[in-house]
Amino acid sequence: MEASALSSLRECFGKRLQENVPLSSYTAARIGGPADALVLVHSADDLAQTSEKLWKMDVPITLLGSGSNVLVGDKGVRGVVIINRARQVKFSTQLEPPTVHAESGVTPNDIAQRAERLGLAGFEWAASIPGTLGGAIYGNAGAFDGDIAGNLVSVELVHRQSGRQIWPVIKMEYGYRTSVLKREHPPVVILSAEMAFRHGDSRLIRARMEQISEQRHRNQPPGASMGSMFKNPAGEKAGSLIEKAGLKGRRIGNAEVSPQHANFFISDGQTRSEDMKALIELAQKTVFDKFGVRLEPEIEIIGEW
C-alpha cells in the first residue's frame, strides 16, 4: 500500500488500525499471508460506516468473519481487511411466523442454540455449522436438508453507490451454494438479516440438533480446514469422487486431503497457501481426467499469490 494511503488510514482510524497483520490468525485453515491493514468492527452500524469510509478513500476492502471457506494467498491481501464481529441477535417470538434479526458477524450455530431455548424450530440444520451468518448468506450455506435460502426473509446491505438497503430473499437469486452476490461480486457488504422460524418443542429441537452435531463431528475430520472444499456435482459426492481418484491422504507440503473425508483439505503445521492451492488443482485435474467431472470449489480463493 502506498505511504500516502496508509497515512490517511492512520488518520481516519487511529489505534483501531492494525498494520501488516498475518491473516493466518483470522482464517479457519490457519494459513494466509499478511493484510496491509486490518480493522475490527463490532456492530452493523460500525461495519456500514467503516465500509463507506474506505470506499470514499478508494481503498480495497476484504471482509472476513470467522475466515472459513476462504484460502488466502501467501502474499496476503492488499488494502484493508475488515474483521466482522457484529453479533447482535434479537428474536421476535410474538410474530407469526416468529423471526430473528441478526447481525452478520454472529454464527449460525449461536442463532440455532438460542432458537432452541425459545422453542423455535426450522434452523436445526445450522447446529455446529462453521462460519458467520454473513458468509452463510453470501454462499447459501446449508446441511441436512436445510439452507439459508429456506429461512431468510430479507438481508440488509450497504452498497458502495446507493447506501444501505434491504433486499427480500428473492433478490438474492439463490442456488446450490451460491447467490447473486457470490456470482457477480457487486460492491456490497452484508450487515444483518431477518430470518423466519416456526414454533416447536424444545426437547425435540434439542434432540435433532444433538443428532446433527454428532453426525457432523463423526463424519468431518478434526484439524484446521476451510470446510467442504468442493460443491457436490449433480448426482455425485465430491468427496467420493476424490477418494475414488486415489487422492485420499495425498499431501503436497503440509497440505493434506483428509484420510477421513476426502472433501476436506487439512492444514498441518506451517502450511503454505501455495501448497493448498496446488492440492486443490491436483484434485480437480485428477477427477476430471478419470471421471470427466469438473469439481467447482465451494471456497473462495483471495489475495495475492
Short description:
The protein has helices spanning 3-13, 44-56, 108-117, 133-139, 180-184, 202-219, 238-244, 273-291; strands at 18-22, 34-41, 61-64, 70-72, 77-84, 89-92, 99-103, 120-121, 142-143, 146-147, 152-159, 163-168, 188-196, 198-199, 224-225, 251-252, 255-257, 265-267, 300-302. It is α+β, with helices and mostly antiparallel strands and 305 residues long. A five-stranded antiparallel β-sheet has the order 6-7-13-11-12. It has a four-stranded mixed β-sheet with strand order 1-2-5-3, covered by helices on one side. The chain has a four-stranded antiparallel β-sheet with strand order 15-18-17-16, with helices on one face.
* Beginning-to-end CA distance, first to last residue: 16 Å
Largest sheet: 5 strands, antiparallel
- Beta strand count: 19
Say what the CATH topology of the largest domain is: Uridine Diphospho-n-acetylenolpyruvylglucosamine Reductase, domain 3
**Computed structural class:** alpha+beta
Runs with pLDDT <50, length 5+?
none
Tell me the overall shape: globular
Question: Could you estimate the helical fraction of the residues in percent?
Answer: 25-40%
Strand order of the largest sheet: 6-7-13-11-12
What is the count of distinct domains? 3
